[in-house]
Design brief:
alpha/beta; Spore Coat Polysaccharide Biosynthesis Protein SpsA, Chain A; three-stranded antiparallel β-sheet; 31% helix; 20% strand; binds uridine 5'-triphosphate
């Protein structure tokens, strides 16, 4: 077996992957052989060779303009919010909506030792992110008299614990056939200086999930795509697990998507500062695309209009509606999503077999991003939302400036406090409140549930 593997590895200079073969027992050898056979070394070699090809991004960014968008304050939007809400609500009532939640990331910045979706985020209740999302889906289904299925993507890094967590909590109330958990693929990490694939143990290759864009292949490969179609779902509402405020199945957003006959729609917020760490949704040659913040040259990011506003103002919050016909078409195109390069710290074993924990980024990882579907989508649209009502991502460990657990909890409590106050409830700024979506999904539902004049003086969970 070793000879066969060496023959496969030699053309790419990757023979070191079997350097510890003699130390491995037969099960470990079989497992390593399986890993090696699954890797497309030709692809890895090509990606590594082109790792520094970024010149085209700078040129592209230079030509980028702001995207046409449904803006919060714009009077000239093609459709009114009422029109959009009616249209979106009809799609929901007709059972055409499903939800796709991507939760395969390793959450390295947060430093939580479980899948990020398990993080207890409810400001009073301590509910997990997964529970918050699922309860919104169930509540939306009840509102429109349908069952909205959830397709949940994990990765080998998060799969088993996620499945166990959902089982332990009876899927947080979702019916068994309304939840499908499927696992995305992986890509090996390579040494940044040499392009050699890293071993994280003598018998194991260092791999990471292949990016949220891995969703496309995973949907098709797991059979989920077919199930979704067979169920009559026509539009998938896409969200990422870390956004605690995402307005799941937002019918106004869905309505703009449908009225515009868009194949892929994206929520954006107005960037507060030029270098904010959000993907930049821009228009180039009449096509929408997203340029990562790390790829946008500073001088382009800082360009301003005469009134002082940013030219490239639209920051993606990675909330989409996707048309199923479009996804089916794209799933057949293996080349449609390029791989991006990320420099990361990856623990590895050195030639002597010693495990090394690097202090600085030593490795390159390859990831696909779902937003790269944008230029291929017909009539793609952008819809601006208010971040206070729709965006509070959990990214960083306590102590960072933003996107930390404390910050996210404060954003959630602030939203719920606003909803309560709009219903005439008295609640002070320093009193944490937390509303279960099954009790009220928005400010209007809060107003139906509670007496104006009610005073809330202690932390309270409305459920
Ligand atoms: P991020 O890019 O923020 O990555 O993912 P992350 O893994 O959560 O955190 P860091 O960068 O390691 O600190 C954005 C969303 O995409 C999902 C994540 O789970 C999160 O919902 N994702 C990311 C995947 O589903 N798969 C991936 O391979 C990468």
């Amino acid at each position: 077996m070793k000879t066969e593997l060496l023959a496969r590895l030699a053309p790419y200079g990757q023979q070191h992957l079997v350097a510890f073969w003699e130390r491995l027992d037969s099960a470990a050898r079989r497992s390593l052989a399986r890993q090696i056979r699954e890797i497309d070394f030709e692809l890895i070699a090509r990606l590594y060779r082109h790792k520094d090809d970024r010149s085209d991004i700078g040129e592209l960014a230079d030509r980028a303009g702001p995207p046409p968008a449904f803006q919060l304050e714009a009077a000239e939007n093609r459709f009114s919010p009422e029109q959009a809400r009616d249209c979106g609500a009809r799609a929901a009532t007709d059972g055409h909506l499903g939800v796709i939640l991507v939760a395969g990331g390793q959450g390295s910045r947060l430093g939580f030792e479980h899948p990020k979706g398990m993080f207890p985020i409810g400001p009073v209740s301590g509910r997990s992110l997964f529970q918050v999302h699922v309860e919104k889906i169930i509540a939306a289904g009840r509102r429109y008299g349908v069952r909205i299925p959830l397709y949940l993507m994990t990765s080998p890094a998060t799969h088993d614990e996620t499945v166990e967590f959902f089982t332990r909590h009876d899927r947080f109330g979702l019916a068994e056939d309304d939840l499908k958990i499927f696992c995305q693929g992986t890509m090996p990490a390579v040494d940044a200086a040499t392009g050699k694939v890293l071993l994280d143990q003598p018998g194991h290759i260092a791999v990471g999930p292949d990016g949220h864009g891995g969703m496309l292949a995973a949907l098709a490969g797991s059979g989920a795509l077919e199930e979704i179609e067979q169920r009559g779902i026509r539009h998938l509402f896409y969200l990422q697990v870390d956004n605690s405020l995402v307005d799941i199945c937002a019918v106004e957003f869905v309505g703009y998507h449908l009225l515009s006959e868009s194949e892929l729609s994206t929520q954006v917020v107005t960037k507060r500062e030029p270098l904010e760490k959000l993907g930049n949704v821009v228009e180039v040659d009449g096509k929408l695309m997203t340029i990562e913040y790390s790829d946008l040259p500073d001088d382009v990011a800082r360009r301003r209009n005469a009134d002082g506003s940013l030219v490239l103002w639209a920051g993606s919050i990675a909330v989409h509606v996707m048309d199923m016909v479009f996804l089916r078409r794209m799933a057949g195109r293996n080349d449609i999503l390029p791989f991006h390069i990320a420099q990361k710290k990856v623990g590895y074993v050195d030639p002597s077999g010693r495990r090394i924990e690097p202090e600085a980024p030593n490795a390159i990882k390859f990831e696909r991003f779902i937003f790269d579907l944008m230029p291929s989508a017909a009539n793609a649209i952008v819809v601006e939302v208010d971040p206070a009502e729709a965006f509070a991502p959990l990214k960083n460990a306590p102590g960072a400036e933003q996107d930390t657990p404390e910050w996210v909890k404060a954003q959630m409590a602030a939203q719920h406090r606003r909803w309560l106050r709009r219903a005439g409830v008295e609640v002070a700024d320093d009193v944490p409140v937390d509303i279960c979506p099954l009790w009220a999904l928005d400010a209007d539902e809060v107003a139906e549930k509670i007496e104006p004049g009610t005073r809330v003086t202690e932390p309270r969970y409305f459920c």
